[in-house]
Amino acid sequence: MARHPNELDRKRIERGLSARKRYLYVSPNVTPVWGGYCIESPCCSRNIDKDGALVDVALILYDGVTGIWKLFRKNHAGGVWEFYSLYHRLIPAIDELNADPERLFWQ
């Protein structure tokens, strides 16, 4: 298994985000962080940043011991990452992030 972050999975996330349901007219950034990837995007809705600046959307971390992907959402009011769910594969985590029916990620 490749270590994380790595360019292959970063690109996989970047491509996967093209199927998202929200913020369709902006280009999110997928930035490598220790153990995974941070997704940020310009704030189209102006709900989080009235000027439309880049805001954190999600944090995806890989646990090399368990082989589990962990998806986090940003609590912007508290300024902290909150655990959302676990996945055995990366693609279902991206699919959940793209669907976001409760608008927990793409705010």
Number of E-state strands: 5
As a whole number of angstroms, the C-alpha radius of gyration is 13 Å
Q: What percentage of amino acids are in beta strands?
A: 35-45%
H and E order: HEEEEEH
Strand order of the largest sheet: 1-2-3-4-5
Major β-sheet profile? 5 strands, antiparallel
Mean pLDDT: 88
Features:
about 110 residues, alpha+beta, five-stranded antiparallel beta sheet, 2 helices, 5 strands, about 20% helix, about 35% strand, globular, DUF3024
Describe the protein in words.
With 107 residues, this protein is an alpha+beta fold. It has two helices and five strands; from the N terminus they run αβββββα. It has a five-stranded antiparallel beta sheet. Helix 1 packs parallel to helix 2 (90-99). The longest helix has 10 residues, at 7-16. It comes from Bradyrhizobium diazoefficiens SEMIA 5080.
